């Protein structure tokens, strides 16, 4: 009897969501409606929806490419929440040597070397558990499959509920107040060495959280292996974005695709109007750019994997010795960093000339 009632309740939820979609299309336009339907479905789906769309098993990697390319032509894009995908706060955090310990009320062990903790009293144990589950089920398996990367030392992930508690914790790092402001408003997460801080109030939903956790875990795992900050920014951020997007696609492929289309369009427009930057630009240029430079970094990494294969890219990351990324790069790809950087820039300009 209870089962029948439950199924009935689910059917009603689906009906309400569908009617909501139809009504909202008239009232608010389709974008809002899509989100409300997603939320409704997520609310009663027992676990995250896992698809293998972006998983680099065997030859399926070509899907990433076709996906990125078809996105560029797709007229329907979802404007992403600016703060969670710019990672400007990450740049500010590079002034820091460490993130201080925080007092925690609740914590959850995700894996042998990864612990998720509440950074303030308002982070619930449910939120800590949910983040821990994402790390265990999605982030770590993605890092391991795609890059052969695992946490070599203990990694802590600390969650904050509000700008106030996050700002308060940041003020204890000794960083200047304008950097704190930028970190409070412009980032979905920050990693210093093997400590990750996540401002939950900047995160839209589970798929967004999955992206941010996986992105930051790449930085932390790389640091635990002894490299990361030594990498050229485009390889470091491009790889973090690749991991973040692959992880997000397992939770909400539509949202990941539409965000990719949005950012790719921005990059292509910058190439068209002559404001595109080369891959080796300075931090200052990145912050002042009128498009998302980290997405350009991601596109460069995608081009590497497309040209040389996902296995070669994985081997490159696995063998990084950090003493000389130039040598490691040359060994893996048979090209100097400089040569690849300029050929990538040219390819962006050429594809713009073709399309215009
Ligand atoms: Zn990053």
Can you say what the CATH homologous superfamily of the largest domain is? Neutral Protease Domain 2
Largest sheet: 5 strands, mixed
**Rg result:** 21 Å
Spell out which ligands are present.
Answer: zinc ion
Strand content: 5-15%
Q: Order of strands across the widest beta sheet?
A: 1-2-3-5-4
Q: Class of the largest domain, according to the CATH hierarchy?
A: Mainly Alpha
Molecular structure report:
By secondary structure, the chain is of the alpha/beta class. It has 2 domains: 2-46; 72-355, Neutral Protease, domain 2 (Orthogonal Bundle). It is built from 16 helices and 5 strands. It has helices at residues 2-27, 30-44, 62-73, 82-86, 88-92, 125-147, 163-171, 177-185, 206-224, 233-251, 253-272, 283-288, 293-308, 310-318, 325-333, 337-355, and strands at residues 107-111, 114-118, 155-160, 190-192, 195-199. The chain has a 5-stranded mixed beta sheet with strand order 1-2-3-5-4. The longest helix has 26 residues, at 2-27. The chain is globular. The model is unreliable at 14-75 (pLDDT under 50). The chain binds zinc ion. Zinc ion binds at residues 87, 90, 215, 219, 237, 240. Residues 87, 90, 215, 219, 237, 240 line the site of zinc ion.
